[in-house]
Design goal:
alpha/beta
């Protein structure tokens, strides 16, 4: 006589039934709470400038004012009416902003997290005006809110030269604090030849073009050690590094 075990199939059906009920409940709950959230009203709009301890080009008020100007202020609106992507894209129209993330919090707020652009060089050009070059070699406007300490170049400077040879030289200065502190200003002439104005000493350093600028600076450092420190820092008005294997000086 064959005995049929009906317990196992019944148990399996019960497991399937319970799983179906749980999944159905989860789907219903998700839909229910999603609809509730969409009908909920935004209570606040927060702006976080993530790198504000380093740069202060944009302020919280700048961002909030920009969002309000384009009628995207989320406060008082239902979340179903709020487009976080539009808010983000509007914030990115500020040319001092590098990136932005806009999201909705579980507490019923909208928060924008902002990162600012990072300048490497400031240019005060006779022909192109006043601007920065950022760490992506892009032209960046100056800000009335904040001035950052980076190498300053003045004179006849076009954007292409600023974004290439001059950028490389400024990046070298930024990465070598001794030179960066020592050089006060980079003056560019109409043939892209460069004169450096030091913070110490009443003279000018003629670099010529920026080819082999590291070798030229090393040559100047040796001249300071074996020349200026011996004869005095006020003996010369011009120190010329343009020529190979020599330093040509003009006495006062």
């Amino acid at each position: 006589m064959q005995v049929i075990n009906v317990v196992r199939p019944v148990k399996k059906m019960l497991i399937i039934l319970v799983a179906a009920v749980v999944i159905g409940y989860l789907i219903f709950s998700a839909s229910y709470f999603r609809n509730m959230s969409r009908n909920k009203v935004c209570e606040s709009f927060g702006v976080v400038i993530a790198d504000s301890n380093q740069y202060k080009f944009v302020s919280r008020q700048d961002i909030m004012g920009l969002v309000k100007r384009y009628d995207l202020d989320p406060v008082g609106r239902k979340f179903s009416e709020i487009n976080t992507l539009s808010i983000r894209d509007t914030i990115l129209t500020n040319r001092l902003v590098e990136s932005a993330e806009v999201f909705i919090t579980p507490g019923g707020s909208v928060v924008a997290t902002i990162y600012q652009r990072k300048p490497v060089l400031r240019v005060i050009s006779d022909t192109k005006g006043n601007f920065y070059v950022d760490n992506e070699r892009r032209i960046m406007p100056v800000s009335g809110n904040f001035t950052v300490y980076v190498p300053v170049a003045t004179g006849i400077i076009d954007e292409e030269f600023a974004r290439n040879e001059l950028y490389d030289f400024a990046l070298f200065l930024n990465n070598h604090s001794d030179w960066n502190v020592w050089i006060e200003q980079i003056v560019v002439q109409n043939n892209h030849e460069v004169i450096l104005i030091p913070r110490a000493g009443d003279f000018r350093i003629v670099m010529g073009d920026l080819n082999d600028y590291q070798a030229k600076l090393a040559k100047f450092a040796r001249f300071v050690d074996k020349g200026l420190n011996v004869v005095g820092w006020n003996r010369y008005s011009v120190i010329n590094l343009k020529y190979d294997n020599q330093v040509v000086c003009t006495k006062k």
